[in-house]
Write a structure and sequence with these properties.
- Pfam families: Mab-21_C (PF20266).
- The protein is built from 13 helices and 10 strands.
- It is α+β, with helices and mostly antiparallel strands.
- It folds into 3 domains: 2-164, no CATH class; 178-296, Poly(a)-polymerase, middle domain; 303-380.
- A hairpin with a 6-residue loop joins strand 6 (88-90) and strand 7.
Amino acid sequence: MGVLSVHNGVICLEDDINSSAFPGEITVLRSLSRRSYHGHCRLLLERRGTTILRQVNDAFCDDGYGRELLSSDLYVNIWSNIDLNEGEVRHERAGPSNPATAIGLLHFDSVYALRYYCPNILSKWAARPRHWPPPEAVQRVVSLGAILTPVGFKGSEYQHVEWRVCFNDGEMELISNLNDTQTKVYVLLKMIKNDVLHPRKKEVSSYTLKNIVLWMAENNPQASFHKKSILQWLHEALVALRVALITLELPYYMIPERNLMATSGLDREQQRTWISTITDMLNEGPKMILRLPKIRKALIAHPEPFRWYSGRRIELELLQLVHLHRVAIRMVENVEVDHTDAILQALTRRRNEVMTDVCVRMRMEGSQVINAGAIFLRIMM
């Protein structure tokens, strides 16, 4: 369980934002992004508030030029020294968080963040040409702003005083705007990560996969994400993941200049294995999801597939019966069959939809038969 605490007694501002509008009790910090990796910054004290939290005040350090920087390392370490409740056990720091376990059962990660006012970053994101999210959702994301979490870019000479820009509330808004198909693709990707790839640490995380889905949603017409295209988009997402593993590059959705794979810690052997595994899955086509235990159990071990197939067969028989009846009436009346007849077209369209469902499911279950006409005749026998 993650616990995010945002301290409202401090405001962090982009370089050119005026601080005079904030009341005197608020501590104002100025972000310095120059010489820091994309999506990270250092925090220079501009004005100490009349009331300031001890954990903030004790985390300042000198930058070598007589100015005060807020150290992310000191900030995390100070919070890690607060007294725990009875039955709680603290664990080693993990990035910006202080992990702990309560009563031996409940694990939680506490992150202490600061509010970040960065209209330039958000307006740049909002101005991108896109298919998604809708304009009203874009405005909500902008209004939700950003936070800074106390973790620097791995390997940076300023790592101990750097902070990472995050958009937790905005990203929750984005996820809530995904449609059903996009959400299911995201869930399937996470299942593949856990059940197929088995990352040892967080070389590929759920956050990585979320960004792939967000980019797909933004760059493609929303009408193309429908219930019959789930496997198609899962295929596209796996292609994107394979490219990210090959190139070790994946732009962060909110700040594309930040590469999410830059600090993945992926070793060569694991990289080759995952690329090979994903390639095999792509070559397997729709039946690749049978690699997922929960999906496989649902498709094979559960009686539902038989009920599903029986329902499709009954519907096809009814459609065929209505179709033949309408054609027969025309023949009795010595009227030529009109193939532009709206009812005949609707019957044919629905029959094709049902057959598509049947064919896709057969492929998922490992069938090599791809001739829809032959399958239809077999069903109607």
